[in-house]
Design goal:
Blueprint lengths: L2 E7 L3 H12 L4 E4 L4 H5 L23 H8 L11 H15 L3 E2 L3 E5 L5 E5 L4 E9 L21 E3 L13 E5 L3 H12 L4 E6 L5 E2 L6 H11 L9 H15 L2 E2 L12 E5 L3 E6 L6 E5 L4 E4 L1 E4 L22 E2 L2 E2 L12 E3 L5 H4 L9 H14 L2
Parallel strand pairs: 1-2, 1-6, 2-3, 6-19, 7-16, 8-9, 8-16, 9-12, 10-11
Antiparallel strand pairs: 4-5, 5-6, 13-14, 14-15, 17-18
Length: about 375
Amino acid sequence: MPHAQLLVIGAGPYGLATAALARERGIQTTIVGHPMSFWRQHMPEGMFLRSGVDWHLDAAGEHTLAAFVEDRAIPPQDLDPIPLRTFLDYCDWFRQMKRLTVREELVTDLAKPDGAFDATLAGGDHIVADAVVCAPGIRHFTNRPDWAASVPAALAAHTCDLVRFDELAGARVLIVGGRQSAYEWAALIREHGAERIDLVHRHEVPRFERVSWKFIDAHVEHTMEIGGYWRHLPKAEQDQIGRRFWEVGRLTLEHWLTPRLAWSGIHRWPGTEVVHADTSDDSDQLRVVLSNAQRLTVDRVVFASGYRADLRRVPYLETLIEDIQLVDGFPVLDEHFGTTLPDLYITGFSATRDFGPFFGFVKASPAAATLIVRELTSHN
């Protein structure tokens, strides 16, 4: 049975960033997961990122996205905005440059029977490790409105499960949500020939203009310099930062969407929500009533309703979940992402309660890696 000092479960941005730095610091590290699987399987071709070339995975600051762009001589006009494919190519390059070998299997169970962790893999093998870093993908945490349960599965999908749009040619599509994913999916569905698209969301129609995420940088730096930075901020300051995120991330969407949404078949229903939905007699269509009394008949519903962390929904943590203190589904973490179960660390989106919303973004993955590895090396 193989033994590692550190087992990293998950090979997305946070898992890769942590594994790379741990290996550079001399920690024997095993990575299990499918590299960038959420990004590859649950984001559509033709999608663009909202970030710039300054967001990368390398805590050492060497194998950055900017370095990749220079290495591949990618012209600036091909990076505004950054295509999803370019970022995936960067992540492949990062793994190559860092000599990261990923064991492409799923962990089905994680236990700690005798002081060390025992991870069971889907193929039946086991890995024993002294410490574990979990970077669970957000697909575990899809969020849907309560009424979604009344919609037949064949007629509805969350955005992360709808990444191919050919079957929506000629369809009438209802998109529930008003953030970037809602409007970008609307553009992509329109470009694949939908007959009509209705966007329903509770806030006003967002602005579409160029925005800057640079305000995140200082908070990420403070997190590395000040132990417990986010949780020690006064509530009023946390709320202020939250409002800034809402303003930049939800009420303002990317300017490059504007020409792609200029079509009479897209109908926006701001300040509304769905109050009733049921299938018509032939069950191939959905009848929807909005809070403004508007009635719609649609062929498909797309839930662009985001994600809500709940660690109890991560299958491989079922054995250990009683030993991990949770608050509203989030793990309670120390200043180095450690859980209440010694030597178990959780990073990424699941850490945003204790580390702030910045840690739901790629930008913070090097900072999380730095704090975790700093703690692991202090034990040696």
